[in-house]
Amino acid sequence: MAKQTAHKPEDFAMRSLNYAKDQFEDVIGQTERYVRQNPGQALVYAFAIGYVLNRLPVGRLISGVLKLSVTALKPAILIYGATKLYQAANDE
Q1: Domain encompassing residue 29
Q2: How far is it, in rounded angstroms, from Cα 92 to Cα 28?
Q3: CA distances (Å), 14 to each of 18, 28, 61, in order?
Q4: 86 in a domain, yes or no?
Q5: How many folded domains does the chain comprise?
Q6: What was the pLDDT predicted at 5?
Q7: Is 42 in contact with 34 (CB distance < 8 Å)?
Q8: Which residues, at least 6 apart from 42, have a Cβ–Cβ distance to it below 8 Å?
Q9: In whole angstroms, what is the distance from residue 2 CA to residue 82 CA?
């Protein structure tokens, strides 16, 4: 019979990390080859992507998410406190 070995979570994490690292290095290598073969087109793409990223309202999005989370946090704390008070009252 074949003996099955249990894989440790650390082994899985290291294999996943190595795989991701290899994939990232492959993408970087492909990008470098493309830029060396088509420098003008790569420069146009870089400017276009930079312009689009500059125009995105990233600051507003982040501030909106923070405001929403603070607004939602207040009722959550109230509900948590009420639950703890109810539990304390039932324990006595």
Answers
A1: 15-56
A2: 64
A3: 6, 21, 35
A4: yes
A5: 2
A6: 53
A7: yes
A8: 34, 35
A9: 57
